[in-house]
Design goal:
The chain has 421 residues and is mainly α. Helix content is 57%, strand content 5%.
């Protein structure tokens, strides 16, 4: 396991930012304010708006900010990154509230029978989500809408091109600064993306745990009631579909691995959701998850990260499996459908026919062609092909992961991908 400083993995632009800000600090001019008052003021100044409306974001923010200061050991780049993301979420909440005030009919929209993909990180949830999103009868969250969900004029998508262009620029910068993360999880502004981006605006998403080592936030997060965050997520989904003019009865296809942790909350907020559960060999998902999170976090600190990421995310992988299994036992089988990673590789059409039947949606020739075209393009471009990962990079063995995850493997009959028990 590599316990060396993270600095040797920083690209030149990150090193230059760190050096410049530290030099400014010598002259008292490099402070990056991560105080609650300062961030709220910056968001209000940046939007010209005052009212947040729903203040369900404050509990998470009030745990996150002290954790960033006391535990994350942020370098200057990390502080700038944290400030930019938090301020962007606060600004979107202000803009969203202005839309809800101007158009109360937005919140009267219905989200009916969404198809919700639930599964471990790196278990094929993204592939399945983006395949289904290729069906024009379904709607999904696009990456640019997740980062920038709220029209800024209070009117229906008058500035969608501007919001999209901002995210396209942000993602382009991310690919240059952090190619490892974007190889592991490719993103484009118009691609389907998970609703975790919306949960992040309530500071009740898993993302901070993938960006920073903040144990106190992790402990709060695992014990918190995330109902307000999910209710606000639903409001933002309604805002997104309203702003682009989608018909109210167009069904959503949703996904984020966080739903494994929050399955009870998910089914409370979306009571008629059709739940699709993905499964893959935990030896693969755990190793890939640790690598992904390391790639996302490595630029934000100068300290070694592999051990903190191993300890946090192996625990989260185990907790996600336990919680989802417990809630599933109380749900009727008619609401649940299981998809194994290997089955998708062998016969995706057969899996999709059964899935569409489960979702009460016709697997039409048009849908089959659209899904097949998406998959062919993905394979042709070789997405994910450059992502290399190994348990040994994080000081783990097969036996250690099996000891933690065997209950999940046995419950759903998940085979070893390499054929070795």
């Amino acid at each position: 396991m590599d316990n060396a400083s993270s600095t040797r993995h920083h690209p030149l632009p990150v090193k230059l930012v760190n050096g410049a800000v530290r030099l400014m600090n010598v002259f008292g001019r490099g402070n990056v304010d991560l105080s609650e008052d300062g961030l709220l003021a910056a968001a209000r100044k940046g939007t010209g708006l005052e009212r947040f409306g729903d203040e369900g974001f404050l509990p998470g923010l009030r745990v996150l900010l002290p954790a960033l200061e006391a535990e994350a050991r942020l370098n200057p780049f990390g502080r700038l990154h944290a400030k930019a993301e938090i301020t962007a979420s606060l600004k979107n909440r202000l803009w969203a509230d202005a839309c809800f005030e101007a158009h109360p009919e937005i919140l009267q929209r219905k989200i009916s029978a969404p198809i919700v993909i639930v599964g471990p990180v790196r278990s094929g949830t993204t592939r399945l989500h983006r395949m289904l999103a290729a069906d024009s009868r379904l709607q999904c969250l696009k990456a640019w809408e997740g980062f920038n969900p709220a029209p800024r004029s209070g009117e229906r998508d008058s500035d969608g091109a501007v919001r999209r262009a901002e995210v396209e620029k942000f993602l382009g910068l991310g690919r240059r600064l952090n190619p490892g993360a974007f190889t592991a999880h490719p993103m484009e502004a118009d691609w389907a993306e998970e609703e975790l981006l919306l949960l992040n605006h309530s500071f009740s998403g898993l993302s901070p745990l993938g960006l920073y080592h903040i144990p106190s936030y992790r402990d709060w997060f695992l014990g918190s009631d995330r109902t307000p965050a999910y209710e606000y997520m639903a409001k933002l989904m309604k805002l997104v579909s309203w702003s682009r003019g989608d018909p109210e009865d167009k069904r959503w296809v949703m996904k984020t691995p966080q739903y494994m942790l929050d399955l009870d909350t998910l089914v409370k907020v979306f009571p008629d959701a059709k739940l699709v559960f993905t499964h893959r060999d935990p030896l693969k998902t755990v190793a890939s998850t640790l690598s992904l999170m390391w790639n996302f976090a490595v630029h934000n600190t100068d300290l070694p990260l592999r051990k903190p990421i191993r300890d946090t995310w192996l625990g989260l992988c185990e907790e996600m499996a336990h919680r989802s299994m417990t809630v599933r036992e109380a749900l009727p089988p008619s609401r649940q459908f299981d998809v194994h990673y290997g089955d998708m590789n062998r016969d995706w059409r057969g899996v999709m026919r059964k899935l569409y039947d489960f979702a009460a949606l016709e697997f039409s020739a048009e849908a089959e062609n659209a899904l097949g075209a998406w998959l062919a393009e993905s394979e042709r471009e070789g997405r994910h092909r450059g992502h290399r990962y190994a348990l040994e990079d994080f000081g783990l063995s097969r036996g250690e992961v099996d000891a933690r995850m065997m209950f999940y493997r046995e419950r759903y009959g998940i085979p070893y991908e390499d054929g070795k028990a």
